[in-house]
Amino acid sequence: RSIVSNGDFSDVRADAQYAIVRGGWILNKGEIAYDDKEFVSPPHSLRITCTDTSTDVTPETFWRAYATRVLKGTMKPNTRYRLSYYVKLGDIVQTRRRGGVTMVAVGSACKFFPEKRLHGTTPWIRQAFEFTTGEKLSEKGLPPCVRPMITEAYGTVWFDDIRLDELPPEDLNTNSESK
Fold first, then answer.
1. Residues near 27 by Cβ (< 8 Å), separated by ≥ 6?
2. Cα–Cα distance between 13 and 25 in angstroms, integer?
3. Whose C-alpha in 52, 66, 84, 86 is 20 to 30 A from the C-alpha of 8?
4. pTM summary value
5. Is the pLDDT of residue 69 over 50?
6. CB 103 within 8 A of CB 83
7. Nearest-5° angle of CA 106, CA 92, CA 23?
8. Three-state DSSP state, 48
9. What is the CA radius of gyration of the chain?
10. Helix ranges (DSSP H) in 12-163
Protein backbone atom coordinates (compact mmCIF):
# COMPACT_ATOMS: atom_id res chain seq x y z
CA ARG A 1 0.00 0.00 0.00
CA SER A 2 1.41 3.36 -1.03
CA ILE A 3 2.09 5.96 1.64
CA VAL A 4 1.57 8.73 -0.96
CA SER A 5 -2.10 9.47 -0.68
CA ASN A 6 -3.77 10.87 -3.79
CA GLY A 7 -0.84 9.83 -5.99
CA ASP A 8 -3.38 9.20 -8.76
CA PHE A 9 -4.72 12.78 -8.47
CA SER A 10 -8.32 11.67 -8.15
CA ASP A 11 -8.94 14.26 -5.39
CA VAL A 12 -8.58 17.82 -6.73
CA ARG A 13 -10.49 19.65 -4.00
CA ALA A 14 -8.99 22.90 -2.78
CA ASP A 15 -7.86 23.04 0.84
CA ALA A 16 -10.02 25.41 2.90
CA GLN A 17 -7.00 26.78 4.76
CA TYR A 18 -4.26 26.97 2.11
CA ALA A 19 -4.95 28.16 -1.44
CA ILE A 20 -1.90 26.41 -2.89
CA VAL A 21 -2.97 22.99 -1.55
CA ARG A 22 -5.25 20.85 -3.73
CA GLY A 23 -5.96 17.20 -2.95
CA GLY A 24 -3.17 17.20 -0.37
CA TRP A 25 -0.51 18.31 -2.88
CA ILE A 26 1.24 21.66 -2.38
CA LEU A 27 1.35 23.35 -5.79
CA ASN A 28 4.58 25.20 -5.10
CA LYS A 29 6.07 26.84 -8.15
CA GLY A 30 5.45 27.00 -11.88
CA GLU A 31 2.25 26.54 -13.85
CA ILE A 32 0.72 23.52 -12.13
CA ALA A 33 -2.67 21.99 -12.84
CA TYR A 34 -4.60 18.75 -12.73
CA ASP A 35 -5.08 17.51 -16.29
CA ASP A 36 -8.22 15.54 -17.20
CA LYS A 37 -7.09 14.95 -20.81
CA GLU A 38 -3.65 13.32 -20.28
CA PHE A 39 -3.42 10.62 -17.61
CA VAL A 40 -2.58 6.97 -16.88
CA SER A 41 -4.91 6.54 -13.91
CA PRO A 42 -8.24 8.32 -14.42
CA PRO A 43 -9.44 10.95 -13.83
CA HIS A 44 -6.36 13.26 -13.70
CA SER A 45 -2.60 13.62 -13.88
CA LEU A 46 -0.44 16.40 -12.48
CA ARG A 47 0.81 18.77 -15.23
CA ILE A 48 3.77 21.03 -14.51
CA THR A 49 4.88 23.69 -16.99
CA CYS A 50 7.95 25.89 -16.74
CA THR A 51 8.57 28.77 -19.13
CA ASP A 52 11.72 30.11 -17.40
CA THR A 53 14.52 29.80 -20.00
CA SER A 54 17.17 31.41 -17.78
CA THR A 55 20.66 29.87 -17.67
CA ASP A 56 21.51 31.54 -14.34
CA VAL A 57 22.63 29.30 -11.48
CA THR A 58 20.62 30.21 -8.38
CA PRO A 59 18.30 28.28 -6.05
CA GLU A 60 15.36 29.93 -7.85
CA THR A 61 16.49 28.69 -11.28
CA PHE A 62 17.44 25.22 -9.98
CA TRP A 63 14.04 24.59 -8.35
CA ARG A 64 12.14 25.78 -11.47
CA ALA A 65 8.69 24.23 -11.13
CA TYR A 66 7.45 21.62 -8.66
CA ALA A 67 4.72 20.28 -6.42
CA THR A 68 5.19 18.64 -3.01
CA ARG A 69 3.43 15.85 -1.13
CA VAL A 70 4.54 15.93 2.52
CA LEU A 71 4.87 12.47 4.12
CA LYS A 72 5.32 13.47 7.74
CA GLY A 73 4.13 10.69 10.06
CA THR A 74 4.01 8.06 7.31
CA MET A 75 7.67 7.57 6.31
CA LYS A 76 9.83 5.55 8.72
CA PRO A 77 13.56 5.83 9.48
CA ASN A 78 15.95 3.06 8.33
CA THR A 79 13.32 1.58 6.02
CA ARG A 80 13.44 0.40 2.39
CA TYR A 81 11.02 1.96 -0.08
CA ARG A 82 10.16 1.72 -3.76
CA LEU A 83 9.25 5.00 -5.43
CA SER A 84 7.36 4.50 -8.70
CA TYR A 85 5.48 6.81 -11.01
CA TYR A 86 4.53 7.46 -14.62
CA VAL A 87 5.92 10.46 -16.45
CA LYS A 88 5.30 11.99 -19.87
CA LEU A 89 7.55 14.71 -21.27
CA GLY A 90 6.38 17.49 -23.58
CA ASP A 91 9.42 19.17 -25.15
CA ILE A 92 11.58 19.49 -22.02
CA VAL A 93 14.63 21.59 -22.97
CA GLN A 94 17.71 21.71 -20.74
CA THR A 95 19.10 25.14 -19.86
CA ARG A 96 22.09 23.48 -18.19
CA ARG A 97 23.74 20.10 -18.76
CA ARG A 98 22.12 18.45 -15.71
CA GLY A 99 18.67 19.94 -16.25
CA GLY A 100 15.43 18.12 -16.86
CA VAL A 101 12.62 16.27 -15.11
CA THR A 102 13.09 14.31 -11.91
CA MET A 103 11.35 13.25 -8.71
CA VAL A 104 12.87 14.21 -5.38
CA ALA A 105 12.32 11.96 -2.38
CA VAL A 106 13.33 13.33 1.01
CA GLY A 107 13.87 10.67 3.64
CA SER A 108 17.09 11.73 5.44
CA ALA A 109 18.65 13.00 2.22
CA CYS A 110 17.42 14.61 -0.98
CA LYS A 111 17.52 11.83 -3.56
CA PHE A 112 16.78 12.50 -7.21
CA PHE A 113 15.02 9.80 -9.25
CA PRO A 114 16.27 9.41 -11.88
CA GLU A 115 19.61 10.95 -11.03
CA LYS A 116 20.20 11.73 -14.72
CA ARG A 117 17.33 14.12 -15.50
CA LEU A 118 14.87 13.31 -18.28
CA HIS A 119 14.47 15.68 -21.23
CA GLY A 120 12.96 15.74 -24.69
CA THR A 121 9.51 14.42 -25.59
CA THR A 122 8.28 10.98 -24.55
CA PRO A 123 5.05 9.01 -24.25
CA TRP A 124 4.07 7.80 -20.77
CA ILE A 125 6.96 5.85 -19.22
CA ARG A 126 7.08 4.09 -15.84
CA GLN A 127 9.92 4.87 -13.47
CA ALA A 128 10.76 2.81 -10.35
CA PHE A 129 13.59 3.21 -7.84
CA GLU A 130 14.46 1.70 -4.46
CA PHE A 131 16.14 3.47 -1.57
CA THR A 132 16.56 3.22 2.20
CA THR A 133 15.82 6.09 4.55
CA GLY A 134 18.34 7.16 7.17
CA GLU A 135 17.96 7.68 10.89
CA LYS A 136 16.65 11.24 10.47
CA LEU A 137 13.81 11.90 8.06
CA SER A 138 14.39 15.52 7.09
CA GLU A 139 17.03 17.28 5.05
CA LYS A 140 17.97 20.96 5.40
CA GLY A 141 14.57 21.86 6.83
CA LEU A 142 12.59 19.83 4.27
CA PRO A 143 10.19 17.34 5.86
CA PRO A 144 9.85 13.82 4.40
CA CYS A 145 8.19 14.31 1.01
CA VAL A 146 8.07 13.50 -2.68
CA ARG A 147 8.47 16.34 -5.14
CA PRO A 148 7.89 15.95 -8.90
CA MET A 149 9.81 18.72 -10.61
CA ILE A 150 11.47 20.44 -13.53
CA THR A 151 14.98 21.60 -12.71
CA GLU A 152 17.33 23.68 -14.89
CA ALA A 153 15.02 23.15 -17.87
CA TYR A 154 11.72 24.33 -19.33
CA GLY A 155 8.74 22.69 -20.99
CA THR A 156 5.79 20.60 -19.79
CA VAL A 157 5.71 17.32 -17.88
CA TRP A 158 2.88 15.12 -16.64
CA PHE A 159 3.12 12.83 -13.59
CA ASP A 160 0.63 10.14 -12.60
CA ASP A 161 0.19 7.22 -10.24
CA ILE A 162 2.95 8.31 -7.86
CA ARG A 163 3.55 5.58 -5.28
CA LEU A 164 5.94 5.07 -2.38
CA ASP A 165 5.70 1.52 -1.07
CA GLU A 166 7.47 0.16 2.00
CA LEU A 167 9.54 -2.92 1.20
CA PRO A 168 10.51 -5.77 3.53
CA PRO A 169 14.01 -5.52 5.03
CA GLU A 170 16.73 -7.11 2.93
CA ASP A 171 18.00 -10.46 4.17
CA LEU A 172 21.62 -9.70 4.97
CA ASN A 173 22.50 -13.32 5.83
CA THR A 174 23.18 -14.71 2.37
CA ASN A 175 25.19 -17.71 3.64
CA SER A 176 22.45 -19.31 5.68
CA GLU A 177 21.69 -23.00 5.20
CA SER A 178 18.34 -24.59 5.88
CA LYS A 179 18.31 -27.62 8.17
1. 20, 21, 67
2. 10
3. 52
4. 0.87
5. yes
6. yes
7. 45
8. strand
9. 17
10. 59-62
